[in-house]
Design brief:
Layout (H helix, E strand, L loop, with lengths): L1 E7 L5 H9 L10 E10 L2 E8 L6 E6 H4 L6 E6 L5 H9 L8 H5 L16 H10 L8 H11 L3 E3 L31
Antiparallel strand pairs: 1-2, 1-5, 2-3, 3-4, 5-6
Helix pairs in contact: 3-5
Length: 189
């Protein structure tokens, strides 16, 4: 089982509004999404992966669900069956771990054919698509990724109440930590 989380354009966030607005031109019938994260159920807990400059990140990283969804109402999350073995998805995502955020790739949406995309740097929906399919694709915005998922997978929307799994006993789980460069996810955690 996989999840794809999409951040909705919110007031007071000009970069999000710019991304959601600009990519609307080629995705008219999609929600105003400006960021994407791919979620995997690892060790009984949802862990997400993307490339971002939010919250001090500088590119591709793993993040725990409770740290990602600080404001669950700003997110739409869809659940679906993976189309290829989870081990391949994790390996492909880990191969990009620590890569820098691709600001030029984002600018590529304003150029013909995305001429400034880099295969060494990643933006959110680009690395999510890579993990999901195993192939690099330039100029795939969060809105276009949403369209791709809805067209190719049977999805179920996840309720906001189901997003964060609490530890009611205050126990620390030694496998539940932030993952950054050098901290790859291993299958079977």
């Amino acid at each position: 089982m996989l999840r794809m989380a999409f951040y909705k354009k919110v007031k007071g966030a000009p970069v999000n509004a710019l991304i959601a607005g600009w990519t609307w031109l080629s995705n008219i019938k999609t929600p105003p999404y400006s960021h994407a994260e791919i979620g995997l159920l690892l060790g009984g807990k949802w862990t997400y992966y993307s490339s971002t400059n939010r919250d001090g990140a500088k590119g591709c990283r793993w993040i725990k669900e409770e740290n990602l969804f600080k404001n669950p109402g700003n997110w739409d999350v869809y659940e679906f069956e993976e189309g290829r073995p989870i081990e391949f998805i994790i390996a492909d995502l880990n191969s990009t771990l620590g890569s820098k955020y691709d600001w030029w790739g984002i600018a590529g949406f304003a150029t013909p054919f995305g001429l400034v995309n880099s295969k060494k740097k990643w933006y959110c929906s680009e690395v999510c698509y890579y993990g999901l399919i195993g192939k690099w694709k330039k100029r795939i915005s969060p809105r276009r990724l949403f369209s791709f998922i809805r067209a190719n997978f049977k999805t179920r929307m996840v309720r906001h109440d189901d997003l964060v799994q609490e530890d009611f006993f205050g126990l620390e789980d030694s496998t539940n930590k932030e993952y950054s460069a050098g901290n790859e996810i291993k299958v079977g955690i």
